[in-house]
Amino acid sequence: MLIQTDFRQQAHPSRADGFVVSALLAHARPCAVTLYAENSVIYAQGDAAGPLYLVEFGAVRLCRLTADGRRQISAFHFAGEVFGFEFDAEHHHFAESVDSAGIRLLRRAVDDHLAESVLPLALRNLSRAQDHLLVLGRQNATEKIAAFLLDLAERQDADTLLSLPMQRTDIADYLGLTFETVSRILRKLKDARIIQLPTIKQVEVINLPALERLCG
Amino acid sequence: MLIQTDFRQQAHPSRADGFVVSALLAHARPCAVTLYAENSVIYAQGDAAGPLYLVEFGAVRLCRLTADGRRQISAFHFAGEVFGFEFDAEHHHFAESVDSAGIRLLRRAVDDHLAESVLPLALRNLSRAQDHLLVLGRQNATEKIAAFLLDLAERQDADTLLSLPMQRTDIADYLGLTFETVSRILRKLKDARIIQLPTIKQVEVINLPALERLCG
DNA sequence: CGAATTATTGAAACATGTCAAGGATCGTGG
DNA sequence: CCACGATCCTTGACATGTTTCAATAATTCG
């Protein structure tokens, strides 16, 4: 946590959730935005849960670890998305900023109409998690990467040039692969003229239909 | 859908969710219970979503398919649990009874305090899905089966003798394995004197600590 | 009892992981 | 601005866990 600024007037680059997020902001007691540097911990496993978190800009990852240190990233969250939901009083994940990210804390207002605007956001996150179950359980490495890129494309509203704020290890831990495999599959898609890799943190989709066909 | 009976007085064998489910029933307009025979469709992908479903007895599976027919079971639901959540107006899964199951339909009451009692249940399902992401993404076949059995043990309130209402293919499609691998791992656990298989649909845990150690 | 379904088991194939080396990129300090 | 070290990424060769294919056994249902 580095700086506190007030971005209250800032437009949300959110898409489908924009309407719901607005409703939420109307009922919550929005605080100032906190700026997190790359790889900062936003909350840790075991921390008290309660407030929600709205990504103003940047990207966030939600992680869990096994006893022997293997990591699973349950979700990435981008600008306009809300995270921090727990069914009990304690966080079961830890949340970290991927790149430099601005996060607005949403505390529950006293008049608790909050639940009504919170539910759709929780259900959206549930739906995303369920989509991801299919990817992890039943898709091979190529299909996983293709699904990941298409999801990014949709959430970035960018048809062709995607930014990959996270590093290869993050992608691997999100998709249940190793970073070597992520690297190899990206290479394969590049060789197949489906994507290009202008920089290490950018992907340009040059054959979207082919990418969609790869998704299984 | 076969028979309509009214089980309204029946006690719920639910554990952690029991309190929340009671609150939900108080606000919803509970209908009679519908009895589904084995492998009946409760709702299909694309059906209109809206009402929730409470499992009175039996077991339910939520499934998705890839274009080429691979299946992922997102969740099993047992007595006392609620399913059917969607963030939009349409079902993204299909729900089927595993064995003979009784399902109560919960329609939204006019006074919509419903959201407040629904949110905890949605969050519980989100939490389960997230737990399962770790299993699918980062655990090997043995760990997956161990985690599955321990989850069953917890939800059945049975320390030692578990019933497996679903067949091997269902377990496989839930854990991202093939049914042959499920069979082999069960055999391995049996040979290691961690479980016994008195019948094809029962597992007796005879070394619980060992099973817990296997979970990673 | 017999047929159909479901489960078990084995052998071989394959996708992904592991280990290892080299190359690119980034940040820092001279 | 360049050089250096650290980190991250790429690529290759080999190992391995899981799948695939196939045959047999057990179970269920009519």
What does this structure look like?
The structure is a homodimer of 216-residue chains. Chain A has 216 residues and is of the alpha+beta class. Chain A folds into 2 domains: 3-136, Sandwich (Jelly Rolls); 139-213, Winged helix-like DNA-binding domain superfamily/Winged helix DNA-binding domain (Arc Repressor Mutant, subunit A). Helices cover 36% and strands 26% of the residues of chain A. Chain A is built from 6 helices and 12 strands. Chain A has helices spanning 18-27, 114-138, 141-156, 168-175, 179-191, 208-213; strands spanning 3-5, 29-36, 41-43, 52-57, 59-65, 71-78, 82-83, 94-97, 101-107, 161-163, 195-196, 202-205. In chain A, strand 5 (59-65) and strand 6 (71-78) form a beta hairpin. In chain A, helix 1 (18-27) crosses helix 2 (114-138) and helix 4 (168-175) packs across helix 5 (179-191). The model of chain A is unreliable at 1-14 (pLDDT under 50). The structure holds a DNA duplex (30 and 30 nucleotides).
Describe the protein's topology.
Two copies of one chain form a homodimer.
Chain A (H helix, E strand, L loop, with lengths): L2 E3 L12 H10 L1 E8 L4 E3 L8 E6 L1 E7 L5 E8 L3 E2 L10 E4 L3 E7 L6 H25 L2 H16 L4 E3 L4 H8 L3 H13 L3 E2 L5 E4 L2 H6 L3
Antiparallel strand pairs in A: 1-2, 2-9, 3-8, 4-7, 4-9, 5-6, 5-8, 10-12, 11-12
Helix pairs in contact in A: 1-2, 4-5
Chain A binds a DNA duplex (30 and 30 nucleotides) through α5.
Structure described in brief:
Chain A is α+β, with helices and mostly antiparallel strands and 216 residues long.
